[in-house]
């Protein structure tokens, strides 16, 4: 999977919970209601390395309610 973006901490993506949000690129579903249609085609390499995501999640273990 190609990671297009990472929000390290969010309070709006899951009501009443503290989350990290990972935006993936290259979704095959092409839903007409998608809020991130620019991320559907894989035109560029990922903007965020998986190791960066893993490191963030390790640091925030016990603090985040979800990803």
TrEMBL record:
GO terms for molecular function: catalytic activity; iron-sulfur cluster binding; metal ion binding. Keywords: Iron, Iron-sulfur, Metal-binding, S-adenosyl-L-methionine. The keyword Transport does not apply. The keyword RNA-binding does not apply. This is Anaerobic ribonucleoside-triphosphate reductase activating protein.
């Amino acid at each position: 999977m190609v990671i297009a973006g990472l929000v390290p901490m969010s309070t709006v993506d899951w009501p009443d919970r503290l989350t990290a949000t990972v935006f993936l690129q290259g979704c095959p579903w092409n839903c007409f209601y998608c809020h991130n249609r620019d991320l559907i085609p894989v035109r560029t390499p990922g903007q965020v390395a998986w190791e960066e995501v893993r490191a963030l999640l390790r640091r925030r273990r016990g603090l985040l309610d979800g990803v």
